[in-house]
Amino acid sequence: MRLARLLCLAVIALSMGSSACASGIVQDGEFNFVKAQHLEQWSEQDKQIDTKLAEIREKQGGKRPNILYILIDDVGFGEFGIPELNYVRGTQTPRINKLSDEGLSFMRMYTEPSCTPTRTAMMTGRHPVRTGLEEVKVALIGEGLPKNEVTIAEVLSKAGYATVHIGKWHMGDIKESYPHNQGFDFAAFPLNQQVQLSLMTEDAERSNAMTGYVKSSYTDKFALDKKFKPFGLVTGVEAYKGKDAHEVDMEAGEQWNQEKYNDMNLRYQRQTLEQLRSLAKQEKPFFLQYWPLIPLNFVRSDREQFNMQNGGTMVESMNQLDGWVGEILDELDKLGIADNTLVVLMGDNGPFLRGYQKITGMSDMIYRGGKADHLEGGVRVNAFARWPAAIKPDTLAGDMIHVSDLYTTFARLGGATKYIPTDRIIDGIDQTALLLEGEGNGRRDYVYIYEGVVLRSIVKQKFKMHMPAPGVPGAAAPVFDIARDPREMTPLIEAALWSGASFQDMLKRHMMGVKKYPHSKGGSDKPYEGIDNLRPETLDAVETFMSWH
Amino acid sequence: MRLARLLCLAVIALSMGSSACASGIVQDGEFNFVKAQHLEQWSEQDKQIDTKLAEIREKQGGKRPNILYILIDDVGFGEFGIPELNYVRGTQTPRINKLSDEGLSFMRMYTEPSCTPTRTAMMTGRHPVRTGLEEVKVALIGEGLPKNEVTIAEVLSKAGYATVHIGKWHMGDIKESYPHNQGFDFAAFPLNQQVQLSLMTEDAERSNAMTGYVKSSYTDKFALDKKFKPFGLVTGVEAYKGKDAHEVDMEAGEQWNQEKYNDMNLRYQRQTLEQLRSLAKQEKPFFLQYWPLIPLNFVRSDREQFNMQNGGTMVESMNQLDGWVGEILDELDKLGIADNTLVVLMGDNGPFLRGYQKITGMSDMIYRGGKADHLEGGVRVNAFARWPAAIKPDTLAGDMIHVSDLYTTFARLGGATKYIPTDRIIDGIDQTALLLEGEGNGRRDYVYIYEGVVLRSIVKQKFKMHMPAPGVPGAAAPVFDIARDPREMTPLIEAALWSGASFQDMLKRHMMGVKKYPHSKGGSDKPYEGIDNLRPETLDAVETFMSWH
């Protein structure tokens, strides 16, 4: 790491710009190794970018860009933004297709393989393994995003941004993890996720989408444990920064059902529009993130939405969400803020497959694998960035980018790089050059792919090594050419023996950083604290949980 | 079939137009069954189409459209025409992408699963099983397209079209099968195919793409049969209608190699351009088909072409061919005939996989399977139709279409429907309405998929039944929802039990036609007759072949 430090100091000497490197941010050994090969060029480019950003800001009356970040749950690569693939899947996403035409499409956006990890990477700019936060389970867990992580909301907030979170959060059920305690001025979100909200219902049981959860679904006289099934979970809450949260639209003793899930989705859409209107009036720029719950949906409803060839619950819900995205983009136009608002829309990981395809209509169409897999199908998503004042429309970029890069890039655009912590590794790379200058200006040609705490793959350029299982020699690790073999079916083995040593070096550079900056401990606490109206059944569930912790 | 006849007569009574039905063409029972549900509507639409075609013709100075048909070998769905998928595969096909923007993209074009069958279906408008022609092998075979088949070249020729064939033919090595004996005024083509031309060479042996063919590659003192390996095959020939063919660019005793293959490809490209220039000068409209040999290519050359991320021999050759397509389209512009020339460009079947992926860079990216498979990956291709005078640009159509439909459709556009034979089943459906009126005006919602002589799948709308193996009860046949499951991985079984009887009915309607109009016998003769300069080694090969026939 000493080399990297020296290099970074060299860059600081060369430039007083606000780029990530110049600010003393600690990055992965692999990035430092690549950066050393482009030092002068990137430093020069960073100066030009600072000038360009200043010019854009001047044209916008001195206002920094608003950022609207829409993260869509469990939708695989190709499900929106490419009209021809709408035909393959028998669906329609006209509004997102149009958004893609109006901005830059990242053709190689990598996420983490699952919800909590991707959201954590975006929020903290770090691989989730470093934060100690693993995938958050469906019911009470007493864990979450620790307060010592510095989220992008905190970073932008310090720099004077108004910050709002609407929709899925999924980073823990403890007080310190709540979005309004992690940098957001206001947040409306469910405490848990869609397994509770769309599967743990009578409706899902009737649809044969879920079995055994509903109390009346079967009788088992041998069941001694009456606490085996989780009941009484908190549903949606709302809160202002630092205040207690309040559960909404749920009475004591009331049963959650699909209708209430549909209502919740409609409410988040409505609240996003309301927030936009309110934020547009403020002097401050804003960071609004909308993380919808649909298209995750396992129950067919009678709504007119089911009107496409595919007919799957999630694919049809994706069409519904596409219309909602359209409403939001129209609202930006109406409010007159479209020109200076960076809209980033993307998927959070691969499709939710796992046996539900017949109901949901999901498929791993191009890249093999889905949610929870380190295969490309698990971590490749469509991603679009539109910012009329700065980004060229109708462009594609083949450069690699990782969801954590948004952290560092949003900070740069918001003039907030100085609030990024420098006492830990930040995996996110400043990709402002890619945004403003387009294809060929990316600063990443690698990604480490974890499943939970296990490093499962290393990608470098078009090559990908699947890490050998414990005890298996490295020489037996299969390497894939992702361009020739996007489904990772035919390992190169003998044809890629040259790459073995190179991948081992990458592993070492990464692990040197882990050694120097050990992983943090995730947050841990009594669940559901800081909610001012817990129902009796919720209090009962918490009591049960605490009885054995 | 009686019902269908009656229906057809009814249509004739309603309309004196030139549509396929009105002309007394015999079609598959399934088509008649569907047609009966749309009789009045299609009849009315056909009258409007006749008017529209007449108007277009009048605007074009009375000239019927030229037809340029480009058929690309062994390239899977998604390899060209969709810029985002260029990124997935690390390649570039900018000219074909542009062509796609200038015309109509058929999003559901079905072919037969392999070269000979697709080409036969296009040429005859019939499933190849009906013609008696199976896949033509690589070396001497003494079989081919029989003379009693009536090709689209014969049909258009009778109606006054100039007809030219350049490139791969692959419908037999007997005299009656040659393109200049099947309706083309002029033809330049290789007698066999690319296994001979790009794999049976010293170069391929050195590249480890082929093993054991070259005489010097190994010594086997136990080899008694000195005729086991095919040598002396005819390479490329040229001929005028009814005349003898002449082998070009090959001397007696000369060894075929990769350089000669590259030269042959360049020659066909040059000849296509030359033919275009010459045809444009004629009073007659023309039907020119160009069936390139590349991208099939197994040997890396030093040419600058290898300049993309993928780096596979076929993917890079596809880029080269893309540039050639661009040259041809530019030539149409230069000649001032672009407006009234229907350009149809498509693949002939799925990608050539079969173990060569590492060399060729090919992949079944979206639909599972490749060449020779009845899976969607074997029979789904990209297809584009551009005809500025008549087809709306930048449109997509989700309607089903089969390669044999081009036969009937081209005949209609050329005013040649009356020359389509009426004494046999024609599978090709007149899709002029789809071409001119766009999406939603297709007249096919089914396709029967044969592998050779075996019916392997039936597709109806978005459902596909894989035929049960002999002896397996029909109820065990898996049915797939191609929209939800484009890779045919998860059979619906219990979820699609309603469809079993419907598919059985489709099978019956199809087989009733086969019973009434039994399959023809394929052509059979002494190979290589009608070539005026056979080399001594060729004569030797023919003599060997005839010695045991």
From TrEMBL, chains A, B:
Gene Ontology MF annotations: arylsulfatase activity; metal ion binding
Keywords noted in UniProt: Calcium, Hydrolase, Metal-binding, Signal
Keyword Transmembrane helix recorded: no
Where's the Sulfatase N-terminal domain?
A: 65-415
Database matches in InterPro entries: Alkaline_phosphatase_core_sf, Sulfatase, Sulfatase_CS, Sulfatase_N
Domain of life, per UniProt, equals: Bacteria
User: Which first-to-last residue range defines the signal peptide?
Assistant: 1-22
UniProt-listed PROSITE patterns: PROKAR_LIPOPROTEIN, SULFATASE_1, SULFATASE_2
Q: Kindly list the residue ranges recorded as spanning the membrane.
A: none
User: Which residue windows are coiled coil?
Assistant: none
Q: Which family does it belong to?
A: Belongs to the sulfatase family.
| Protein's UniProt name | Arylsulfatase
Organism of this sequence: Desulfoluna spongiiphila
